[in-house]
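Hi V.,

Quick status before I head out on leave. The structure for the redesign project is tokenized and pasted below; the design run finished overnight.
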């Protein structure tokens, strides 16, 4: 687990090192301001398409349902341990809560495939075949309608451009290719599980994610999603993981299935 923790920490540090605020607004000039490009038009990276998860670590927590009491690696509070020790998958099924481990804070860890597309010019749609879940990543959060907590919560997205995406300030020559990452902050989540065996997160939890693309030397395109869950009720410190997905050429293997508390 120490190797896993180090990997996750390095992934976050790399993300923070290359991520900056969006392109600064120009100053001066006359006449009306130039129109602002939509999130779709200004995207520095293309996340659309089909992606398959590649499980390189935490096999016993992700590929099978871990045994009750196997909570290694999660900085749980005493209250969290008490809740997890009372985990009862049959009771979850009976209560219609079989999607507890498919919420936003955990869905990217569930093995399967995701499909990313633009719902409109300011909203990315991320669908997971595991649990048949859909997330809406809104660059214009005012479009969201506040309401009761849901499994996928409310997600606010923003592009973070690397320095290469800023061009040559004040200098001649063409703009260099844009590059960067996607930052997503999710709140208003329905209480769920970080792991299949009842490790909880609450409705006051906040999920922050960084989506980065990496081109492998063999030409494969990989999506790395670094997730940080903060929850003062159930976590002694932020819980950080990094999940990997490989780009697919088509929809092969796409197989939406309902949630299951027993898997």
């Amino acid at each position: 687990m120490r190797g896993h923790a180090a990997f996750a920490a390095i992934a976050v540090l790399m993300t923070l090192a290359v991520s900056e605020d969006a392109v600064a607004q120009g100053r001066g000039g006359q006449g009306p301001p130039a129109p602002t490009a939509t999130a779709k038009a200004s995207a520095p990276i293309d996340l659309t398409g089909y992606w398959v998860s590649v499980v390189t670590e935490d096999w016993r927590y992700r590929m099978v349902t871990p045994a009750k009491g196997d909570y290694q690696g999660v900085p749980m509070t005493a209250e969290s341990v008490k809740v997890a020790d009372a985990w009862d998958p049959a009771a979850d099924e009976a209560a219609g809560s079989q999607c507890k481990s498919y919420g936003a804070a955990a869905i990217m860890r569930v093995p399967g495939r995701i499909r990313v597309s633009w719902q409109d010019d300011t909203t990315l749609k991320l669908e997971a075949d595991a649990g048949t879940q859909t997330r809406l990543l809104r660059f214009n959060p005012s479009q969201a309608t506040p309401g009761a907590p849901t499994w996928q919560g409310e997600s606010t997205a923003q592009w973070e451009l690397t320095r290469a995406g800023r061009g040559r300030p004040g200098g001649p020559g063409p703009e260099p290719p844009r590059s960067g990452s996607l930052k997503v902050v999710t709140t208003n989540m329905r209480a769920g599980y970080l792991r299949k065996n009842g490790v909880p997160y609450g409705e006051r939890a906040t999920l922050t994610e960084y989506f980065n693309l990496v081109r492998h030397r063999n030409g494969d395109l990989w999506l790395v999603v670094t997730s940080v869950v903060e929850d003062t009720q159930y976590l002694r410190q932020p819980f950080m993981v990094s999940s990997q997905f490989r780009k697919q050429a088509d929809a092969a293997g796409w197989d939406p299935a309902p949630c299951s508390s027993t898997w």
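Above is the designed sequence. Residues 2-19+45-169+177-247 form one domain.

G. will cover questions while I'm gone.

Best,
W.
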